[in-house]
Every structure is written in structure tokens, then in C-alpha cells.
Amino acid sequence: MAAIIEMDGVSFSYGSDAAHALDNVSLTVEEGDFVGIIGPSGAGKSTLAACLSGAIPHHYTGELFGSTRVAGYDTCDVSLTDISRTVGSVAQDIDAQMVASIVEDEILFGLENFGVPHDQIEGRIAHTLETVGIADLRHREIATLSGGQKQKVAIAAILALEPRVLVLDEPTAALDPVSSSVVFETLSDINRRLGITVIVIEQKVALLSSHCSRIVVMDRGRIALTGTPHEVFGASERLRAIGVDSPRTVRISNSLAACGIAPDATPCLNVDEAYRLIAGLVKDLPHAASTPADAPAPSPHVSARPHAEGASPVLELTGAGYSYPNGGASVTDLAMCVYPGELVGIVGQNGAGKTTITKLLNGLIKPARGSVVVAGLDTRETPVSRIAAHVSTLFQNPDRQICKNTVLDEVAFGLELTGVDSASARESARDVIERFGLPATEAPFSLSRGQRQMVALAGVVVMEPEIVLLDEPTSGLDYRECMTVMETVRDMADHGCAVVMVCHDMEVVSDFAERIVVMANGRILDRGPARDLFADAALMDEASVTPPQVIELAARLARDVSPAFAGITEVSDIVRTVKELMGRA
């Protein structure tokens, strides 16, 4: 198969004094490949995407060495328009990429700008919408679409131009698990049926491992590792040293191989593969079917605490409802309580009303029905400024709450607004900045998306609030950043802060949340211990949530193989149970 993209010794820096964002990168992509690119924040992934799409050298200025050839043409020798006829690009910020208000017009815009003959336009629009599975959205306003639907519109607008290569930068960062899977299934379908080469940058390693034919691992501007998903995730220790996570099922199979129970096992990329491996090891053992379940060890992150006797909730929604004036998604009959020191996760499909709950809790919107009480204050009768003295919020898009020229100024800003003197505010800010490993003197907008997320969170943490509301706190973060952020959030809860976290990463929710609230279509379907609700397959299906891999695997093994796996939520407990069953044979 012929190469569609060839990079030879490419180095790039965004200024003469800047470090290399790419450092001597050589990469060949064959036509028809489905390539996943992973790596920690700042590894050069987005810069690599900019080279592949022609944005470097035609949009971003800097020092460029080496060559990138697309369909045989050096990107320095042809125009960005010419490159765009071969390579279609979907940016990280979908809203910034949209140029029209109606789905049909969004697709039409590119076709007209590329000079597609009018007699072909209708056919291309209809065919592309059908290919991506959004024909029913043709006349919808883009502002009314969910994040997953917008993502598919962006993909459709590029596909209509009939590119040979599609480059996507973290296309599922803000999507729920089911919508993320749908986007990847769409990409797999067009790769398989249409032969379009797909290159996707993504933090969700489980999705990449299930769909990509090849994985490229980047670290500090270089390619550190490349191979098939089984080959790359077989090197989990090396990935962990780089700062890249592995799917939980890979951790299980690698652990079983390392301890000699399954020495020849290849990494299990998904629940099906892990189930087959473990069932093959223990299913026919004489004691397996009758071995009772031991109480699983608690998560190393979750430290569930009973409420102190007589403790009052610090957040309380009672029959709360709200409808947006423009007809957007409404929420109805919301009821929940959060106590000091709790970390509660809110999960559900895009458009379920999760972000609306956070806006009700911080007073940005007032309930039309029912009541919302925060730190003893009824939000309908209390100005937002007074509520803000008790509640700090991390919004879904960090760029909407960053306004200062340096990281230090940004993190200290909130304290200064509350009357803390500048010297004390900056001292506290430096402590938090050091904990997060952020560059104090850098401009926030010069940092990566993940680093900007951490800057915004640092501005929340430094306030030491009674209540913190987090809307997708781990979106766009690499594994190390995610753990730094979540351990910090856990520490806040341990010191009495009530934490409400909207999150699409079910592994993070399972690791850190004591309780979860499950939402769909503007309503709360259920609330309770995370372990119990994640194990409710019907509930997860209704909420369009994919349960964490370990919980799904444990439930299948407990049902089909041995009750000893019942209730397990941790990789280590799966491995321990297999060892115990094997030891009894």
C-alpha cells in the first residue's frame, strides 16, 4: 500500500527562542491506515496534527526543518487550499470550527468555497449526511445540537469535500461514553467502506485500542513508540513512565502475565478479550463456581465516610426545575443532597442536564420550580456574589474563565477579588502552582489545552471553598495531569469541601466518587453508591453510559464464571481473585 503522508526529520518551534514542539519526527502513514496518536500534554500531538493538515507552515509561524509530503507534495511547496483537498481537519474546539447556524449550511459552506459544481452539491450533502448518520439533522440549528451531534456535523462537513485523509484532534474530549463510541464507530466505518485514512489524537486509550490499526506514542516532541495496539499497550510500564495510561483490561492481562499466571497472554484491549482470558483460566476449576465473594478492597482513591450524625447537607435540590428561554434542554424535578466532605459524580448522556445542575448550584440560573439551597442560602433570594463566597466553579471550557497575562496572576486573581492582599494571594497561588507543576510566569494561553484546564482548576483550589463544582475537570488532560487534579480534588474533600463533579470519564468517576447521580433527558434516574449503580446494566443503558471496564468485567465473570468476582471495582482485586481461584485448583 502506498504512503499518503511522509514526514522526514521534521522539527518545529513556535519561535526562534522556543523549545522544539516537534523534534526530528519521521512518520509514514499508508493510505487506508487508521492511526491513533497518544502522549502526555505538551508532547507535540497538536503540532504534529498541524503539520499533517498544512496549518504548519501556512498558518502557524515558527522555525521548521525537515519535510512533510502529502500525496507526494511537500507542504511547503503547495498552498493550504491544495493540501485541504487531500487532508480534512477537525479541530479540538468544535464550536470555533463552525461557521453556519444550520447543519445544511455548515456543509454547504465548504463545498461552495472549494468550487464544487452546483449540480453535485445536493448529492454530496445528502450522501455525506447519510454516511455519518445524521440525515435527520439536516435542517436543525447547530446551537440546539448535543456535543456528539456537533462532532458528527464537523466530520460530515469535512467528508463532503471528499478528502483522502481525515485528521482529528481529540474529537471526543467533551463527549459522553456512548457518543464517543458512536464517533469512533463512524470513523471506523468511513475508514473501512470509503478507504479514507484516519489519524486521530485522543486521550481515551480504550477507544483507540479498539478501533485503530496502529498507535503512535509521542513524548517531548518525539515519537517514543509505535506499533499495533497489542504491541504498544504491551509496553504498559514504559507508557506509564511517559505519562500515558493503558486500558484497565490491559492492566489486568499484563498483571496476570507478570505474575506468571498467564505468561503468554497478549494485552487484553477490551472487556471481551479480558473475559475470554480469565474464563479460560478459571471457569473449569472445581472450586470456582461455588467460591463466595470476599469483600473487595476499597478503592485506593475513594475514602467513603458516613455522614456525621445530625449533619446537614451543604447542597440541596428539592423538586428543582428549569427551562431555557430559547427552548434548550430543560431539567425537571431534580432532587439531591450533598454533604460536607463528599465527592459526588454526576453522569449521563450529552444534553442530560448535568451542566444545568452546576449552574443551579452556583446561582447562575434560578430554579423556575422547586428550590436550591446552597450553604443554607436559597439561591432564588441570594445574589450570585454572595453564593460565590461559598461555591467555586470550574467550567467545562477553561478559556472562558482565564483572563490574566501570567499563570501566577490568574491563580491569585480570585483571592485578590475577595480582599486578600496581593502578597498573601500570590504566596498561596505559588503553592498551588507548584503542586500542579505549572509555569508561574508563562501566559496561560501559550499553554496546552490540558495545562489551561489545570490553571483554571488551580484558581478554584486556591480559594479553599466550602463547595466546589467541577464540569468535566479531566477533559483534555493526560494521565499524570488527571491524577494530579483528582488527587487534589480528593484532598479537598478529605478536608471537608463538598465536591460535585460532572464527568464523562467513567474510570475517573469509579476511582474517586463515593456516590453518583445518574441523569438522562433532564431528569435524575437514580442516585446512590457508584459501585451499585455502575453494575445496573439497565440503568447504564438508559443513561447512555458505558460502565467502567473493571465493573463490567467483574459483573460478567460473577454471572458466568464465579461469584468470587461479584462487586469488584479494582484491577488489583480482579488479579487477586484469579490468583486465589488458581491457588485452590
Summarize the structure.
The protein has three domains: 3-242, 3-Layer(aba) Sandwich (Rossmann fold); 248-300 and 553-583, no CATH class; 315-549, P-loop containing nucleotide triphosphate hydrolases (Rossmann fold), CATH 3.40.50. Helices cover 39% and strands 20% of the residues. It is built from 24 helices and 20 strands.
Q: What this model shows, in words?
A:
The structure is a single chain. Strands 6-7-8-3-9-10 form a six-stranded mixed sheet, sandwiched between helices. The N and C termini lie far apart (50 Å). 39% of the residues lie in helices and 20% in strands. The chain has 585 residues and is α/β, with parallel strands linked by helices. The mean pLDDT is 89. The protein folds into three domains: 3-242, Rossmann fold (3-Layer(aba) Sandwich); 248-300 and 553-583, no CATH class; 315-549, P-loop containing nucleotide triphosphate hydrolases (Rossmann fold, 3-Layer(aba) Sandwich), CATH 3.40.50. A hairpin with an 8-residue loop joins strand 1 and strand 2 (22-30).
Key structural traits:
24 helices, alpha/beta, Rossmann fold, 585 residues, globular, 6-stranded mixed beta sheet, 39% helix
List the SSEs and their pairings.
Layout: E1 3-13, E2 22-30, E3 34-38, H1 45-53, H2 55-58, E4 63-70, E5 73-74, H3 80-84, E6 87-90, H4 94-97, H5 103-113, H6 118-132, H7 147-159, E7 165-169, H8 177-194, E8 197-201, H9 205-211, E9 214-219, E10 222-227, H10 229-233, H11 236-242, H12 248-258, H13 271-282, E11 315-322, E12 331-338, E13 343-348, H14 354-361, E14 369-374, E15 377-378, H15 384-387, E16 391-394, H16 407-417, H17 422-436, H18 449-461, E17 467-471, H19 479-494, E18 498-502, H20 506-512, E19 515-520, E20 523-529, H21 530-534, H22 537-542, H23 549-560, H24 571-583
Parallel strand pairs: 3-8, 3-9, 6-7, 7-8, 13-18, 13-19, 16-17, 17-18
Antiparallel strand pairs: 1-2, 1-4, 4-5, 9-10, 11-12, 11-14, 14-15, 19-20
Helix pairs in contact: 5-7, 6-7, 7-8, 12-13, 12-24, 13-23, 16-17, 16-18, 17-18, 18-19
